[in-house]
Every structure is written in C-alpha cells, then in structure tokens.
Design a protein that fits this description.
Blueprint: E1 2-6, E2 11-14, E3 19-31, E4 34-40, E5 47-48, E6 51-53, H1 60-72, E7 76-91, E8 96-109, E9 125-132, H2 147-151
Parallel strand pairs: 1-7, 3-8
Antiparallel strand pairs: 1-2, 3-4, 3-6, 4-5, 4-9, 7-8
C-alpha cells in the first residue's frame, strides 16, 4: 500500500498496483507582482499552477506550451527548470491514483489575455487569473504547490 495525497484533502492508502506513472509539466508565469494561477475545482477552491500531464509523444516543453494554451489561453516562452518533485496522488472523483513526476518551469508570457473560466479545457482547475504574489499563503495554495512560497520568497521581502 502507498500513502497518496487526495485531491479533496487528506490522505488515502492505495494498492501499489493501482498507481500509474504520470509525468507532468507546470508553469511559473509571472507578470510584474502577479503570478498566473488556476482555481481548483472541488471543495477547497485553492490555487494551483497551470499545467498537467505530459503525453508519451510530447517533450516537457511541448506539453507545457499545450497545457498553458488549453488552461489559460496564453502562449509562453518556457525557460529553465525551477523545481522537481514526486507526488503520490489520488484523484477522489474518479478513483485514479498516480505516482506523479512534477516538473516546474519558469515561463515568460508572450500573451496576457486569459481564457474565461467556461472555456478552460481542464477537469480539475478553472478560472485562470493573475494573482498578486503577496496574497499567497499556505491556506490558499494546493499542498503540492507550497514550495512556491519559498521560491517566490513570500514573507521575506524586507
């Protein structure tokens, strides 16, 4: 059995045979004092970075460019790898479980007009928005994104 983080909060034990490998690419897109975030669908409504699964035929960069177009409606120039982490993840709505390999990249926006929530092509996140970096804290970010607070040096601006 493997302990997995649940989408809707908490943790669940999942048989190891049920886990699938799932690499994912996510974008850290900053615009001045704001960062591009999505709102998670479901009970907690916390922020998460845009991005998602890398298809077997895609490079990380191509997948991230596709995901940002589908989820936020913008084009980006994908830069350097900023962070990597593993995530044992259980998606409560479907009962699927993954051993996630999460790649986070710094991105520069090439366009800025975001998709309206109803046009977002994603089942777990919606409402792309530019969120002021200084408003982020542990209670409004998804658990897998908490490393972002240190990365953006939130609370350490003096």
């Amino acid at each position: 059995m493997v302990a997995c983080r649940c989408w809707l909060g908490g943790e669940v034990l999942v048989p190891k045979e049920k886990l699938s490998h799932r690499p994912g690419a996510y974008g850290i897109v900053q615009r001045g004092d704001a960062i591009l975030l999505m709102t998670t669908v479901g009970e907690n409504g916390r922020y998460c970075l845009p991005g998602g699964g890398i298809e077997p035929w895609e490079s990380n960069i191509v997948a991230l460019e596709r995901e940002l177009k589908e989820e936020a409606g913008i084009q980006v120039d994908v830069g350097s790898l900023a962070h990597f982490q593993e995530d044992f993840f259980y998606y409560d709505p479907t009962g699927d479980a993954w051993h996630g390999l999460l790649f986070y990249y710094n991105c520069s926006p090439l366009s800025f007009d975001l998709l309206p929530a109803e046009l977002v092509d994603d089942e777990s996140a919606t409402n792309p928005q530019w969120v002021k970096i200084d408003t982020l804290h542990e209670d409004n970010l998804q658990p897998q994104e908490l490393w972002l607070l240190g990365y953006l040096k939130i609370g350490d601006k003096h």
